[in-house]
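Hi team, as promised in this morning's meeting, here are the two structures we talked about. I've kept the exact order from the run log so nobody has to guess. The first one is mostly here for context; it's the second one we should focus on when we meet again. Sequence first, then the predicted structure tokens.
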Amino acid sequence: MVGGVDHGAVIFNVTEVGSLTPRYASMAVMSCGIVILDLLQSSAAMVISTVLISPLMGPIVQLGFFLCVVDFRLMRRALLALVVGVGLALLIAICFVWVSPLREPTCEILARTRPTLFDLLVAVFSGVAGGYVVITRKGEAIVSVAIATA
């Protein structure tokens, strides 16, 4: 399996999907707006489906990949994109919650406040599956990994 991997193509693919671009920033804002509205409406199906448009997966995959290959320059770029994306998401979330008439947490919000060991195991197995998908360039499977994680 390792002998058949085009390392240059993997590096290009990983670098391309997690870069800090205007598209990435706008997708972070839009996906956060959608998920906050879904959480405030207590819509489990919509919260899960919002994972599919989240752009934060790109910098997370980049950060993990470049940590493995020990490329600190590209790791810093991935970390910057991740920090900017999270910052934008927090800013949008704060604005939406501030103007929302709801003052009590919904059941969907409460369901995500007490993670368990099983949640950690889901994250670990999803990370392994996501890494395999990136290395083998089977992009269509990443959607399944995202849905299973959600």
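And here is the second protein, the one for discussion:
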Amino acid sequence: MKYLFITIFIFFSSFYETFAQNLQVETLMDLNASGGVTIGPDGNVYVSDFGPALGTASVNTKVYKIEYGSWEVTEFASGFSGASGSRFDSQGNFYQSNPSGARVSKRSPDGTLNLDWVTEGMSGGPIGIVHDEEDNLYICNCGANTIRKVSPDGTSTLFANSSLFNCPNGITRDPNGNLYVCNFSDGRIIKITPDGIASSLTALPVNNFVNIGNGHITYSNGFLFVATIGTGQIFKLSLSGE
């Protein structure tokens, strides 16, 4: 695979109640980039550029803002060392993982960018990010096989460490405070309690030819949705793993 093009898609109905064969997917654009996708408080789409290929992260990459409706693409921020998972908190702060830079960057609502906002505990390569009601961040640290917790003031602590992790990649959170992580290097989906206890929820098919598994995971309306890498599929999971 030379290039990974990010396809932005929108489901126009209550997709979680619809059978997969009835889902309608519309391709809006192709970007020569691979990375995280998140929705901002303004309703616009923000795409992080890991680099043109799903290998070593590029340096001096960007985050693109895509205007909802017109789909006009503009630069939102730049200077990242491979831009992977991203997140807006409740205050409108934007957080960006830098896997090659071993850091998490922060862009304030006024546009101030701190590229080295958090580096403590990120040597394994931060990827997915999610936040709780207090705007604490939970960050997948791929190479170290850990989940870090970062407080709003930037204090980084270990939240979860488990042999079940195999390059934790995507991360999401349910209303009860449970985290769900998908591994990049196998098909396992892992549940993490608010106390940091990890257990295996299920495993999805992987692409054995290139030994990669899952990309992104999100919680919505009582279900988990997981995008697998290589197989080109999206799985819908119940919280019991079905």
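Starting points for discussion:
The chain is about 0% helix and 45% strand.
Residues 140 and 147 are 5 Å apart (CA to CA).
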